[in-house]
Every structure is written in structure tokens, then in C-alpha cells.
What does this fold into?
Amino acid sequence: MKRTEKIKRYGFFNIDKPSGLTSSTIVNKCKWLTATPCGHLGTLDPLASGVLPVGVGNAARLFDYFLEKEKEYIAEFTFGVSSDTLDSTGELVFGGRVPSEEELAAALPAFVGDIDQIPPKYSAKNVNGRRGYELARAGVEFELPSKRVKIFGVELLGAAGKENTFRLKINCGGGTYIRSLARDIAAALETYAVMSALKRTKSGVFGIETALPFSVLEEDLPVCELEKYLLPTESVLPFETLSLVGKNAERFFNGVAVEVDEKDGVYKIYREEEFYGLAEVKEGRARAKTKLC
It folds into this structure.
């Protein structure tokens, strides 16, 4: 049954995605509940759980401002096994030794910094107009080029309590594939490994400690109750506010670049008391960059 009552304000849901659901399933649920277009800010594989920010309404236009934000994951890598998907959901092939905790810890510093990483073939990477996972499922042979990613830190947390499995905390930039990291760390130890569990605990300003359990969305709350969990758009944007008054403000909101004293960068803009969007200052002139109202 289609909902007709639309949510009255826009912003972000910080959702704790459970393992086993796709990111699009979460987004579609938000669309249905709010009767408003929605979009997530960085997908999670079905196996993965944790922080999935979902922009509601025009807040989804801000995707580009979250691409380079630091992310934190708690991952489990199982050694002595490989798979076509690089995780435990694929076709598993057992073989290869299992390193000691000391060996694994000694290998991790080489993966901190700017590193080159080949994405998994079972991914959403575009290959001549088709997704990599589509080609891989169809048995098509193809290669993906390596990409430069940033790893801020990799910490071994110890054995995961499962056979041949270790738990790691990984802080990285956007676009990093944790599955590929499992493959590459294992290769450095002359063995194999798959990612067997993953939880995203941080995505920019969104943290797991304040994330909304998906079970709350499954309660099909009325819009008035749902709005209590909506984070205002301006509250998650790490930009200073640009104040405009008088004729400067009038000209700016009519689409004219105006002279300002602020340094170059992106700023939040308010029109009276309402959050208007983002402005960009360049060489002493400010103009509207992303309008949200």
C-alpha cells in the first residue's frame, strides 16, 4: 500500500543496516515511509552491517560532499580460504596456511597510507557500461584497473573466536574495498583470506553509537514519529556559515555572485531562519553552489 503523507522536512537517517539486506532495500524502505525520494551515501555489501546514512529529499543532493570522509570498519578475515567474491558468500576454496597473530600484526603497517588496490570483480564497478558483478556472474573474463585508496590505520584486535579468523579495525578513505584488503594482506603473507564479516562503525560524522536500528523502520511509524529520528541537513555539514545582509543577500539569492571577505571554500547559507544550501567562495566572490530549498 502506497503512503501519501510526505515527510515535512528533509535531512538524514543514520541507519544501522543489518547483515543480509542490500543497501537499496534500506533506501526503498525509507522512500516508502517518507513518500519522498531518498538515497544512501555510500553502499554496504549485503554481508556487511552498520552505518548507512540515507539522505531524505533534497539532502540526497549532497552525496559529493561525503565521498572523501573517513570511514571506520570492524572486519573479520578468515585465512586459509579464498573465494571468487573475496568474501564468505562466494564459492569457497580451502587451502593456504593460517598466519599467527604476530605475523599478521607485522604485515599490517605496509598497508597504511596511500596504496594501490584492485577492486573485486564482484562489485558495482562500471566495465564498458555494465556492472562488474553482472559480468562476473555471466562468466565473462575481464580485468579491473587498480585505484589509489587511503588507509589511515589498520589495527589487529585479536582472534575473532572463530576458526582461523581474526578481527581488525580499519580506518580508511572513501572507495576502499575491505574485501580487497583481506586478499592483499593474505597475499603479503603468502596465503589466502576472505572477508567473513564486516561492520561499518563510522562514516564521516555518522557513527554507530547514534545509528537507528532498522527494526525501528520496520515498525512503519507515522511520519510525525519518524521525523524525530531525522538529522537536520545543516547539522551534518562541517562548514562555517556565510552571513549575507542587505543588498548583498538580495543579489545572492537572485543568482548573482557577490563580493565577500571570507577565504575560498564552501559555506552554509541561511535565508532568514531557513537553511538555504551551500555557497562557494572563490577569489572574493560568493555564489550559490547547492540549493536545498
Notes: The chain has a mean pLDDT of 91. The first strand starts at residue 11 and ends at 17. The CA atoms of residues 159 and 166 lie 4 Å apart. Residues 23-34 form the longest helix (12 residues).
